[in-house]
Design a protein that fits this description.
single chain; about 400 residues; alpha/beta; Aspartate Aminotransferase, domain 1; Aspartate Aminotransferase, domain 2; 2 domains; seven-stranded mixed beta sheet; four-stranded mixed beta sheet; 17 strands; about 35% helix; globular; binds pyridoxal-5'-phosphate; diaminobutyrate-2-oxoglutarate transaminase activity; N2-acetyl-L-ornithine:2-oxoglutarate 5-aminotransferase activity; pyridoxal phosphate binding; Acetylornithine aminotransferase
């Protein structure tokens, strides 16, 4: 179909979108309404961890759709229990609550911390978060985020989220008072421009929060589920947080998210937390397929080696073009351009002929790479060749 034949005008405006409509995808490739194909290094914003239309996910979705789609969140179902069991087996956490989006999982983490504070810390409710962090688009998670401008768009904000500086333990310590209940951070800031918290900082945070008897919450919506080369990014720093949230990769493209905690932190009482679709079997069956594939023998080793391959190749490119290097973990990486040409590169790369390549500039001076975790080195080479030809044309 021609672009003009789609009833695009009926969609509420929220952002500028290119005049193409995606119709299907497989693995690392997406296809549009004109039959043009795109090598996809965005993958739904680090969501499709197994690429487009993964066979195992399709199978799980089909099987479950025939069995049971929704019994109600007030009852147990088999996929919800199986996925929770898989997650606790492969993490340091004991309890799981399923949600539908990263923001909703983070809202749950905020509620759980506040409830714990009410119960054990004399009503402490403040959660220290970080400049340039991103925790979602609900009012509370926007308030928790340190994204410039987000304090005013929908003012007034939800109170109780003082901001510290990432990798600066003194800036955190300064904010701790009797009202503090938790520190919440992304182990790797994603939207902020792929900025990893150092191993040392994570360990200092764990030490500091223990010392003050406050909770450590990791938002692994983007860094979790194999993205950083380990199943969860907190595992890179050898610490155990109290609470973790997952989203994006856990569903591999379907709306699924999770809130996990240590047993002693799981203090919700009947009626405190819920949601119509929490733990619905259709989504958790897909999540079970995703996490099973990520934890299959050899898979994460493969992610680490492909991440290392991408890292080496980005460094070569940086050297060759006089850029400022690269950073990241696993298959969440950024190329530091040193100048504000990111958006221009993204557009030209998408519009290339005959094939396009989908890239993201999380900030104007860098490119963020978040391919499928099963991307091949051949596809990485292809992406780099296409990127080089875009750079030549600037
Ligand atoms: C994307 C993201 C969120 C929000 O997830 P949604 O599913 O869009 O609500 C929260 N935290 C981090 C770190 C993210 O990258």
């Amino acid at each position: 179909m021609n672009f003009n034949e789609y009833p695009i005008d009926s969609l509420m405006y929220i952002t500028n979108r290119p005049e193409i409509v995606f119709t299907h995808g497989k693995g690392s490739w997406l296809y549009d309404n004109n039959g043009k194909r795109y090598l996809d290094f965005i993958q739904g914003w680090a969501v499709n961890c197994l690429g487009h239309c993964n066979d195992g996910m399709i199978e799980a979705l089909n099987q479950q759709a025939k069995l049971l789609i929704n019994p109600s969140p007030a009852f147990y179902n088999e996929p919800m229990a199986k996925l929770a069991g898989l997650l606790t087996q492969h993490s340091c956490f004991d309890k799981v609550f399923f949600a539908n989006s990263g923001a909703e999982a983070n809202e749950g983490a905020i509620k759980l911390a506040r409830k714990w504070g009410r119960k054990f810390k004399d009503g402490a409710f403040e959660i220290i978060t970080f400049d340039h962090s991103f925790h979602g688009r609900t009012l509370a998670t926007m308030s928790a985020s340190g994204k410039p401008g987000w304090d005013t768009i929908y003012a007034p904000q939800v109170p109780g989220f003082p901001k510290a500086d990432l990798n600066d333990i003194a800036s955190v310590e300064k904010l701790i008072n009797a009202k503090t209940v938790a520190v919440m951070l992304e182990p790797i800031q994603g939207e902020g421009g792929v900025i990893p918290a150092t191993r040392e900082f994570m360990q200092q945070l764990r030490e500091l929060t223990k010392q003050h008897n406050i909770l450590l919450i990791v938002d692994e919506v983007q860094s979790g589920c194999g993205r950083a080369g380990t199943l969860f990014a907190y595992q890179l720093s050898g610490i155990e947080p109290d609470i973790m949230t997952l989203g994006k990769g856990i569903g591999g493209g379907v709306p699924l998210a999770a809130l996990l905690s240590k047993a002693e932190i799981a203090v919700f009482e009947a009626g405190d937390q819920g949601g119509t679709y929490n733990g619905n079997p259709l989504m958790t069956a897909v999540g079970y397929s995703v996490i099973s594939q990520l934890t299959a023998p050899g898979f994460l080793e493969g992610v680490r080696s492909r991440g290392e391959y991408l890292r080496t190749k980005l460094l070569e490119l940086s050297e060759e073009r006089g850029f400022k290097g690269e950073r990241g973990e696993g298959l969440l990486r950024a190329l530091l351009l040193g100048k504000d040409i990111g958006y221009q590169i993204v557009e030209k790369a998408r519009d290339m002929q005959p094939d396009g390549v989908l890239l993201n500039a999380a900030r104007p001076n860098l490119l963020r790479f978040m391919p499928a975790l099963n991307v091949t080195t051949g596809e990485i080479d292809q992406m780099l060749a296409m990127l080089r030809s875009v750079l030549d044309s600037l």
